[in-house]
Amino acid sequence: MRTYRGYLAAATVLAALATTAAKCDVGTNDAPGGGQPAASVPAPARSAPPGQGRKSPSTTPSPHRGGAAPPPDPYTGYAGVNDMRPPLEADGSHRVSCSALDAQFTVTPDNTRTRWRAVALDYDPPSSQRQYSTGNIARDVVIQPSSGTLEPGQSATVHVSGRYDSPLDPANFWIIVQAPDPDWGTRVSLHLRCIGR
Q1: Side by side, which strands form the sheet with 186-196?
Q2: Which residues contact 147 (CB under 8 A, 6 or more apart)?
Q3: pTM, to two decimals
Q4: What is the pLDDT of residues 41-99, one digit of tens each?
Q5: Which range marks the domain in which residue 87 is found?
Q6: Is 135 among the domain residues?
Q7: Structural domain total, the chain
Q8: Cα(183)–Cα(177) distance, rounded to whole angstroms?
């Protein structure tokens, strides 16, 4: 009797296991082909390619990169000053009447093309100085012409007129004539001293 009951209990357990397995098979066979349904895998996040969304660099060629260099300045020679009137005094100055200036000199190139300019200042600047403060320019001193270009064999006659006022006695001013040069620019300093007001 005990043996029969044991067999009956075992059969009941087996039947329950079979029913559970059948339910599991029904759940897993819903996918086509009878296999397990494909898992839903989220698509990986995609980053924009490098540089996307940013303005692409300009393809316009730069005039300073890969382009032709600017042509050299053809007027880079030395310039000289000659025939200064009034003549040079023993102290290195030229005496002028500052109430009615009247002076003259000649600018000539040194066997090459040159560009020159002249300016009147109330002091004698260092030889290395090429730019001058407007406060130091003797504005009432008229230089004609005050700049120009010269070919070999040419010359320019420069006239100085106008007036020069200064609280100093004696009053002095300087006319600086300069021209560019690749290695060392020409700079001639003409010292003018007032002898009358």
Answers
A1: 94-97, 186-196, 172-179, 114-121, 147-150
A2: 115, 116, 117, 118
A3: 0.61
A4: 555 444 444 445 545 544 555 455 556 766 666 777 788 999 999 999 999 999 999 99
A5: 79-196
A6: yes
A7: 1
A8: 17
